[in-house]
Amino acid sequence: MAMRARTRSPLARSAGAFAAACVISILVSLFTTFLGMINFGPLQSLIEADNRVLYSLGSPPMRPAGPTSPVVFVDINAAALEGWPSEASGRTPRRLLAKILTLVRDQKPAAVFLDFDLRDSSDQDQALLEELMRPSRPPVLIPYFFESPSMPPCRRQVGLADALRPAVVYTPFDSAFDTGSLYKVHAALETGTYGLIRGACSSYRLRGATAEAWSDVPAAMVLATRLAGHRRAGVDWPPRLISPTWRLRAKSQGLSFGRMAAYTWIPAGKLFWTNVDLSPLAGAIVIIGATHHGGEDRHPTPVGVLPGALVHADIALELQYPAPGSGGPAAVIISFLIDFAFTLLAAALATAICWHPLHRKLSSGGEPTFGQRLWRLAGELLIVWSVWLAMTVLVVVLSRYVSGITGVWRFALVGSLCGTIIVLMIEVVAVIGDSASRAVERMVATRLADASSSMEERS
Hints:
By secondary structure, this protein is α/β, with parallel strands linked by helices. Helix content is 41%, strand content 15%. The protein contains 9 helices and 15 strands. Strand 8 and strand 9 form a beta hairpin. Helix 1 runs antiparallel to helix 7 (329-361).
């Protein structure tokens, strides 16, 4: 007795489509996670857009970890250079820097960080050296630069051979360290995926003149917050990477915590005005930096290109107002699980709304027409982006009540785009493949039929 051929019910075909969608969901999530770990230039603008949504809509609240000091950025911009003699390569005139430092220290800030490369000598060095050597003045932090082809990653310093550690490049102002009000720090910023700034290492262990001589140099803002009295003394070892929450933008002029100013931007030229209120400098962590043409201290960050001084200001805010949430491998795992749940939900809705009704219309084993495929594709894309939008709104709402939720899911713009591209590729490739298969099948069937007819005529 001949066996009857099994027919596939619409429910069975829909279940098979859902299983395929689950497999695709895993691949999409893995591919999205992989893209977040490699440098791929064309995706940088999308990553920045993703971060802008994160930090604009779901920025964590300002919650101090203890006593705080306001952060002030004294910006030596193009207007501040007017009337001052220029220096080589357009760098900031040292006499101007000395004058600004004097005015700032007169207001008794907690600490002053000079965010400048002071390795080269200048005929204007004497004025700055005299200000640095003045006794009983607020502390000044000078960045040291390192003699190394590449800085070791922050967390890989532990166990690193002394011969491989970077060495200090000294400055013309090292003699001022004997005064007791001048401190050496590092201003190195660590980059990550897509060449974007990740943050600053809390300290670097540097090679000395002999094998036994070495020194730990803290990050500028780590020492600044300690001098302000808000962190414990000593050097962080093993070191840790301090990643800011990127609360500031290139044009940010202020940030408040309640009625208190957490961050203030002051153009340097304003310091020379008469009857100007300089009280924001008192007790503050002051960063003197430059944004004028020739300053050349600009860095790509997750929220766009920022002056180095702003990056350090963000780090100072992070140390005083740490953002809740998880980081490191745990954040990657949680983000992957959320991305997978997002794609799984989209697959389940697409199965129920698009695929199952279509399979019920088709005869057992029948294939959809081109028009039916097109409508199904439109429905799939609408579902994917509707689910993404709904989850984005949900995360933004929950961020008001659940701290750190935006730190583990970055609104999945990249994941949504990858899913959209893969769905389009599957449908387009399937249509092209099926069309080619049917065309070849018809051609071969026609030729076989013609050959069979010819044989019959001959016989």
